Amino acid sequence: MSARKTHPPTQESTTRPRPPSKVRSTVWLLVSALIVLFAIWQVNADWSRFANIFTEAPRYIALMGQGVIENPFTMPWSEYWTKSLALMIESLQMAWIGTLIGAVLSFPVSFLAASNTAPRVVVIVTRQVLNIIRAVPEIVLALVFMIPIFGLGPLAGAMALGVGSVGTLGKLSSEAIEGIDRGPLEALDAAGASKLQQLRWAVVPQVLPEIVAFWLYRFEINIRAGAILGIVGAGGIGSILDQLFNAREWGRIGLTLVVIIVVTVIVDQISAKVRQRIIAGPGAPAAAKQVRERVAV
Amino acid sequence: MSTPATTDRAPTDQPPADRPVKPPPSIGTVVGLLVFAAISVYAAIGIEFTLRPLWEDVNRGREIVARYFDPNWAILTRPAVREGFLETLYIAIIATLVGCLIALVCAMLASKVSAPNTPVYRITKFVLSVLRSLPDLAWGLLFVAFVVNPQLSGVLALTMFNIGIVAKLTSESIDAVERGPIEAVEAAGGSRFQRGRYAVLPQVAPNYLSYCFYVFEINIRASAVLGMIGAGGIGTVINILVSRLQHEDLAAVVYALVVVVFILDQASRAVRRRLT
After folding, report:
1. Is there a contact between B94 and A36 if contact means CB atoms under 8 Å apart?
2. How far apart are CA A187 and CA A198, in angstroms?
3. What count of CB pairs under 8 Å joins A to B?
4. Which of A225, A263, A272 is nearest to B168 (CA)?
5. Which residues lie below 8 Å from residue A156, measured CB to CB, with a gap of 6+?
6. Is A139 near chain B, with CB under 8 Å?
7. Which residues make Cβ contacts (< 8 Å) with residue A103, sequence separation at least 6?
């Protein structure tokens, strides 16, 4: 910041430039701090209970750990493990079918929500409908609509996940559609293709990889949602979780949580790998190299 | 994807001889589709998938669903409902702040760019993926058992969940920062903290703030249902109404919930759009 040689300085010209005004960010910081302080003051949480984290929780966690390290091949425990695993697989199945339903429902809707494939009025209406769907928590959807229609069980859960997925999937997919290259669209238009043919041969091939990646992303979210829907009776591992906490069976709780964590992490990893492969295409590094070579030539 | 149709729609005369033959679908695509179909069938059998209730048992549901078109708006004026909504909002706000602050530190440790060494980076990444793998309500159940107090357990549950999400997203942003400023700070003899504060943080700040608002949206939704397992907020009210089968009242509360979430979502997204 000191004077440069090219500018033989007089005393006045060496003043350091003024830092940009911080008034705006300071005001925002103060406003958010006030909101948070107001919330802390208003909410009647019993903050002293926080000490329980250090006094009670370690004991419970130790009990949970005992359940996990108990020999899984002796009688009650082997049954607990298989039961938890079977229910977690049911959660996965719900998540898969839910995602599938969401994908099937959202695919046509996303064309209606993209400004380059649908008229303006339709886009605005569809977008708001999607926003409203996004605003309903899946568990409320299951409790209020799906269980009365489909009865208790995983089917209601899958339907709730499916309808709940339409909101995000439709929004993300429509944004992908809006980002396409217009060239193929114009070429088909010039060749006299109908509106439907244009969608099929110009839009779908461009956006399909991205949209499939969104489906997988939503699948990862649905696994977590599917693991808790059982709390309201909509199938999956949540059902047993609620019972166990009511009965305070810490050993089995620990074991069930381990099952949830391990299965979720594994499926997440696989799904992320597949997503990467879909987006980047086969042999990504090789393809990138080829492109570079082609440019070089 | 696009195998047959071109040949069906061949014009009146035969296709020109120089037209290239369509390549057969690759083995990867075929295997992928087969695996996809197999999993779908397996899952559908597993949960006994059927759409039959939609038209056969619809009468059973119709009575209940019909009551949702006749909501009892009067219940919204009850103090318990109003307090439930406010509590949901407070829990979400506090959890967002605490979770995001802790997440910033975790994010710094979970990126190769800013972590002090590889073991720290690996451990933090692993812990974060465990944090994220438990759903919000599972955290809720745990903390209700640990601290008993509903509001506090709601805040703690959402905080844990937020750390996982925000730290992961932010650490990915940190991975992508430009190295120039980091090298500059290092060359000027800055400490590790100074490097994070003056070279990394300014670059990721807009993204980080936008993630904070994003989890705030998630928190509003999550804290609304956390009450169902006894962790405070409007979910408590929903739970009571469900167990008493007061569907007209429940309808009004659910609609109000959707409106509140919708408005906060839009506000938060307007802020996010300005940030990035």
Report:
1. yes
2. 9
3. 180
4. A272
5. A142, A146, A147, A149, A150, A233, A234, A235
6. yes
7. A165, A169, A215, A218
Confidence band, pLDDT 50/70/90 cuts, at residue A278: confident
Interface check for A98 against chain B (CB to CB < 8 A): the answer is no
ipTM above 0.90, yes or no: no
Q: Model confidence over B113-172: pLDDT tens digits? A: 888 888 999 999 999 988 988 888 999 999 998 888 889 999 999 999 999 999 999 998
| Per-residue confidence band for A297, with pLDDT thresholds at 50, 70 and 90 | very low
Residues of B with Cβ-Cβ distance to A42 under 8 angstroms? 86, 90
Residue A21 lies in a domain: no
Would you state the pLDDT for residue B2? 44
Please indicate, yes or no, whether the overall pTM of this predicted structure exceeds 0.90.
no
Q: Is residue A48 part of a domain?
A: no
3-state secondary structure (DSSP) of residue A115: coil
Q: Which residues form the domain of A267?
A: 71-279
In a domain, A106, yes or no: yes
Contact A227, A218 (CB under 8 A): no
- In whole angstroms, what is the distance from residue B237 CA to residue B234 CA? 5
- Identify the CATH number of the domain in which residue A93 sits: 1.10.3720.10
Residue in A29, A38, A43 to test binding to B, most B beta-carbons within 10 Å: A43
Please give the CATH topology (third level) of the domain spanning B73-275.
MetI-like fold (1.10.3720)
Q: CB of A42 within 8 Å of any CB in chain B?
A: yes
Contact A93 B228 (CB under 8 A): no
Q: Is residue A28 part of a domain?
A: no
The pLDDT of residue A5 is above 80: no
CB spacing of A42 vs B86 below 8 angstroms: yes
Say if B198 is an interface residue toward chain A (CB within 8 Å): no
| pLDDT > 80? residue A59 | yes
Inform me whether the C-beta atom of residue A231 falls under 8 Å from chain B C-beta atoms: yes
